[in-house]
């Protein structure tokens, strides 16, 4: 095993990754397995460097002193010999040769000095080189590697200009003027080119082009399969495939009209001038979009409208009887909306495109979303679909299933299982609408474009898959005892408490870390200026909000009993979804926080499930 060359605490010169620049750093530790040194820059940034990227300070000082000490002696010798009358020719020859040596030494000094000093002011390592906060990515910040690429691209030209400045006969004013023109025009033109190239996603999610092409068909097929299975007398996985209905029975124009009325009613409520207006996170251009927070008011108005319809004997059983047709109508609408979104995104400016949906591949960008925040005037299509038609539709569907159960089984009261499912999921929806402003910091808003993935997820997957337990209980009633119902209620309350308190803890700390109420929280400082919480829920597991989500999902499925696995599809799906999100969060956090994130992972080893994962 190779010997260690630099000791802990030693101050050395470390090369900034991706460049030829060396900066003063301090060695903090050494990994015997990877043979990497952990070094700390003056601005607090910590990186892992190879031994070949580290040099002692004495080597730089020795070279500089050697070149600088030799030049004056040679100049004095040259002057003394050129003045000697006894050896004029020989003196001139030797002076010429030494002058060449002097120039070589001078060039060498310039090159060595360039290793120790930054070429451009913005290529110095800063706190923006590694970024990310607990649990979620912030996609509005630019990729700082563009500055390193830019530095490598411009360094040869800058070095040439510096050498010419030493040997050129042109006046210094002309050189400064030229450098100013170069800085104002050439540099920033190159910055735009590099940032445009850096905005392209390097890694494709969901299996890339092939995976997203399959998902465009697989997701609707999954929804239809689940709904068909719930209608079967024996919804066992062994009974595959379920009997397929006639194609003409899947579409009904009246049902599609009802769906459109619902969608545009929610759009009208979204436009009402009630509720506060807040700003979202800064975009890549620095601009902040404004959002009206009135989702809870829309919920109250919708509840009043549904109550009025029920008072006048409007039968919500129609929704249960045409449930499959409503799902088909929503899927067709989401496809048309996705096509419109992609076509309009082709004319969107570069800075308005989504970081993850700008790959240049049609299928992938169509699926993930090409434009980040598509708007019609002030109407934000993505933000509207995120919480309104699908989430509120989920509550209305659950209510329709409760009434359908009572009608089909001639009950004066809904079953205890149905009451639990409706109550738990209603609490979840109301919490989301009450804390509507928090959605502005999620990846769906800040990072993901609005394409088929979110359009189908918001308008089809959420209302028709999340209501799977209620739909299942209509055809497969399950009786549970009061003690079992109490235990399930406690489980849901535990999950909700973890979910809400973890999110509130993180949001409060992010807004005001100096709040005296949060003085008990400990955190790991990072080069970005933000902190990684290592106490409270975020010191228990890395993603406690995901843990709360999964516990609640289990509580929603337990009232359906254990006769079939179908009601637990949501739990399985939710675990897979959150594990995927957690892996994406881990990748982004490691890129943003660097070694600080590694120390956080050592301090908090479990990701979602304590002592398991």
What this model shows, in words?
The protein is of the alpha+beta class. Mean pLDDT is 78; it is low at 64-97, 106-156, 163-170 and 178-199. It is built from 20 helices and eleven strands. It has a five-stranded antiparallel beta sheet with strand order 4-3-2-1-5. It has a two-stranded antiparallel sheet with strand order 6-7. A two-stranded antiparallel ribbon has the order 8-9. Helix 5 (208-230) packs across helix 10 (362-368), helix 11 runs parallel beside helix 15 (452-465) and helix 18 packs antiparallel against helix 19 (569-593). The chain has three domains: 10-58, SH3 type barrels (Roll), CATH 2.30.30; 207-478, no CATH class; 480-612, no CATH class. The two termini are 34 Å apart. Helices cover 57% and strands 7% of the residues. The longest helix is centred in the last third of the chain and has 30 residues, at 482-511.
Q: Given the C-alpha coordinates, what overall shape results?
A: globular
Estimated structural class: alpha+beta
Number of domains: 3
Count of runs of 4 or more consecutive helical residues: 20
Head-to-tail CA distance between termini: 34 Å
What's the multimeric state?
A: single chain
Helix fraction, binned, reads 55-70%
Enzyme class: oxidoreductase
Membrane topology: Multi-pass membrane protein
Subcellular location: Cytoplasm; Endoplasmic reticulum membrane; Nucleus inner membrane
EC number: 1.3.1.70
């Amino acid at each position: 095993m190779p010997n260690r060359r630099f000791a802990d605490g030693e101050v050395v010169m470390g090369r900034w990754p991706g460049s030829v620049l060396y900066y003063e750093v301090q060695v903090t530790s050494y990994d015997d397995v990877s043979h990497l040194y952990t070094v700390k820059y003056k601005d607090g940034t910590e990186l892992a460097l190879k031994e070949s990227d580290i040099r002692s300070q004495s080597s730089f000082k020795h070279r500089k002193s050697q070149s600088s000490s030799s030049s004056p002696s040679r100049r004095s010798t040259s002057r003394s010999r050129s003045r000697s009358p006894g050896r004029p020719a020989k003196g001139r020859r030797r002076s010429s040769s030494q002058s060449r040596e002097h120039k070589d030494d001078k060039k060498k000094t310039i090159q060595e000095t360039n290793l120790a000093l930054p070429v451009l002011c913005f290529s110095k390592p800063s706190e923006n080189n590694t970024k990310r906060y607990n649990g979620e990515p912030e996609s509005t910040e630019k990729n700082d590697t563009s500055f390193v690429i830019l530095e490598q691209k411009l360094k040869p030209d800058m070095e040439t200009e510096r050498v010419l400045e030493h040997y050129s006969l042109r006046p210094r004013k002309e050189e400064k003027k030229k450098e100013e023109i170069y800085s104002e025009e050439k540099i920033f033109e190159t910055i735009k080119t590099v940032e445009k190239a850096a905005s392209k996603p390097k890694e494709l999610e969901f299996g890339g082009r092939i995976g997203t092409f399959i998902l465009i068909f697989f997701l609707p097929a999954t929804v239809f399969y689940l709904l068909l299975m719930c209608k079967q007398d024996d919804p066992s996985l062994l009974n595959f495939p379920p009997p397929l209905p006639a194609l003409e029975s899947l579409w009904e124009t009246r049902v599609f009209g009802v769906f459109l009325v619902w969608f545009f009613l929610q759009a009208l409520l979204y436009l009402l001038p009630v509720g506060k207006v807040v700003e979202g996170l800064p975009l890549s251009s620095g601009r902040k979009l404004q959002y009206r927070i009135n989702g809870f008011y829309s919920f109250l108005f919708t509840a009043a409208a549904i109550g009025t319809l029920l008072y006048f004997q409007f039968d919500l059983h129609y929704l249960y009887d045409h449930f499959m047709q409503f799902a088909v109508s929503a899927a067709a609408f989401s496809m048309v909306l996705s096509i419109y979104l992609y076509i309009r995104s082709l004319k969107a400016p570069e800075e308005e495109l989504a970081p993850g949906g700008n790959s240049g591949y049609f299928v992938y960008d169509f699926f993930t979303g090409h434009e980040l925040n598509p708007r019609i005037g002030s109407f934000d299509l993505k933000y509207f679909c995120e919480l309104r038609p699908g989430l509120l539709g989920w509550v209305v569907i659950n209510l329709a299933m409760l009434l359908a159960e009572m009608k089909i089984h001639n009950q004066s009261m809904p079953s205890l299982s149905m009451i639990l499912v409706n109550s738990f999921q209603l609490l979840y929806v109301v919490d989301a609408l009450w804390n509507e402003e928090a959605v502005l910091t999620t990846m769906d808003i800040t990072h993901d474009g609005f394409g088929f993935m979110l359009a189908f997820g918001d308008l089809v997957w959420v209302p028709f898959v999340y209501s799977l337990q209620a739909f299942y209980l209509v055809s497969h009633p399950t009786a549970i005892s009061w003690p079992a119902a109490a235990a399930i209620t406690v489980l849901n309350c535990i999950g909700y408490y973890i979910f809400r308190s973890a999110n509130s803890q993180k949001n409060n700390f992010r807004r005001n870390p100096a709040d005296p109420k949060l003085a008990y929280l400990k955190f790991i400082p990072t080069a970005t200026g933000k902190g990684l919480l290592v106490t409270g829920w975020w010191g228990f597991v890395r993603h406690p909000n995901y843990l709360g989500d999964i516990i609640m999902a289990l509580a929603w499925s337990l009232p359906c009993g254990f006769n079939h696995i179908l009601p637990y599809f949501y739990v399985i799906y939710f675990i897979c979804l959150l594990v995927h999100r957690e892996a994406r969060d881990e990748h982004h956090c490691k890129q943003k926080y660097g070694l600080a994130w590694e120390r956080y992972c050592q301090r908090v080893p479990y990701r979602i499930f304590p002592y398991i994962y």
